[in-house]
Structure formats: structure tokens, C-alpha cells
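Take a specimen:
=====
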Amino acid sequence: MSQTQPKSLEAVQPLRILLSELTLREHRAAIDLAMDGTPWLPVLAPATDDPKGVDVDIAFVSRDVTGLSTKHQILPDTQRFYSAMLEAPALRWVHVHSAGADRAVFGQLRQRGVTVTTSSGANAGVVAQTALAGLLALARHFPLLLAAQREQRWAPLLGTGLPRDVRGQTATIVGWGPIGQQLGAMLRLLGMSVAVVRQQPTPAGEGFETFTFDTLHEVLPRSDWLILACPLTDRTRGLVDGAALRRLPAGARLVNVARGEVVDEPALIDALTEGRLAGAYLDVFAHEPLPATSPLWSLPNVIATPHSAGFSDGNAARVVDIFLDNLRRRLAGQTLRNVSA
């Protein structure tokens, strides 16, 4: 009589998934469907600091986990979730709600051999729309008009200089992921010329001039708009420094929906203060929250928003869809989407 082969350890033991209470409450049934009969055990991060910790196989970092925390200022609930991941010896895969995974905790996990995947693409349309709104607000001199409104002062643009038509202007988009591609299509519809700066020289498509990070300086002198939509990497950190800003033509403007560290912030403030740069829409900053003492709050040619370009009521569902798709892929032994390097 032949002896039955023992099942693998993962087949016998439930797959332990670290997630938030909100995710468990709202998406447990969907996770059950994705698991397709494979047993799993939800694990919540400790509500208080727990020296015993937890052990898990997978972690899902949803938006409610990070909440109002930033990568520079981590609130206690977020830190407890991070600590649970860092202290879980069996953890093999983490999925994060954001399009990037440049927070320190994810770097530590990757160094440990943990696979980190992102939700790149989930909020791309929203970010692209916000970047377009920032561009148009600057192009149509909305900072001047809104300042006049607050002062209850009638100030038609005839008296302050007519805005330039955006048609015929050149926008240089740094980063050609889902955000950059959607934004490029929108700007083309407005009649703008679009140049693309990406890591590799692979052509971005018909009608899009393509440059690399190393050749960014070549396109800057004819860029009316410099739009940053790239991930933060060792190569893009400080990519737009003082020298790059000085290569932009007079009247150029900057839009940053990437990461604050892509730009030399003191050099940016100098360029805006001196008028070498006509304006900027900034959703990200070198340090977040942006310190109350920063001149970027009060410069008349700056629109500053609190890292909110990608927020919308539909994002959470799109993030969960990507996580569940990756969960099914993992169970099937397939390649995961959006693996962070």
C-alpha cells in the first residue's frame, strides 16, 4: 500500500495576511473569492505596542493604514503596522496602496528579500487630471485672479498681462508611466508639443520627442512647462537642480506631481522668488508636511497642495482590485504586477 505524500506546509497552514480592520470588514468576501478555497487567516496589527509582535506571510498596506502619516512624519498607528511587517520573519510579499514604494520601511523590507508591489495605475487618471488643472490654473493666471478675489478687487487680466495661449507651447514630461502617458495625451489635445524624458531612450510614441534623464538638459531651453511625473530613484533624486532650472527659458513653469526630492527645493524657491521661473504647481515637497516657515506657502506664483493630487473616492476600489489580482497570481505561481525594484 503506497504512502500518501505529505502536503506542503503552506497548503496545510492558513496563509496569514496582515491588513487593516477596515479592509477586513469591507473586502473579506472578495479576498475569500480570490483565495478560491485556499485557507487564510486575517491578522490585524496590534492596537498598542506589543513586544510579542505577529507573524504573517503577506501584508496589504491600504490607504487607511498610512492615513495622515508621511514618509517623514509617521503617526503611531501607522508605525505599529510598519513594525508588525518589519518584525514578521515569515513575511514574503507586501502590497502597498501607492504608486511608489520609496518610504524607508519598504526599502528595509526589500533588503530583507521581501517582494514589494505597488498600485501603480490606480490613481494615474486622477493625478494626470490634477496636474492638468495645475497647469491650466497657472497658464490662465488663476493665482493673480484669486488674490484679487480675496481682496474684493476688480482686476481684469488686461491690466496685468495677457496669458499666453497654451496651443503651440512645449511641455516636457519627466516620467512616462501611466500618469505621464495620460497627461501627454491630454496636452496633445490642447495643441501643445510634448517631449518625454524617461530612463531608457525607447521612443515614447509617434509625435513624442524622447530624451533620457542624461539628456534632459538638451530639451530644457525650449520647455515652456517642465512636468515631473517620475518615480523617486537614485537617478531621479535631485534631477532638477539649480543648473537645470537655469536652462529653462524665461516664463517657464514647473508642475511636480512626482516626489519633492526630484527637485532641489532651495534652488526652486530662489528661481521663483527671483522671477526666473514664472510659476509652479507643487503637490509634493522635500519634507512633508511642508513646514509652516517655507516660502512656498506664500509665494504669489505658487500653487501648493498637500500631496493630494491622487485622492479620489474611486481609488480604494482600484487598489483592492490590483491587490486581489496579485493575490490570485501568487497562488497560481504567476509573476506579480508592479514589483518595486
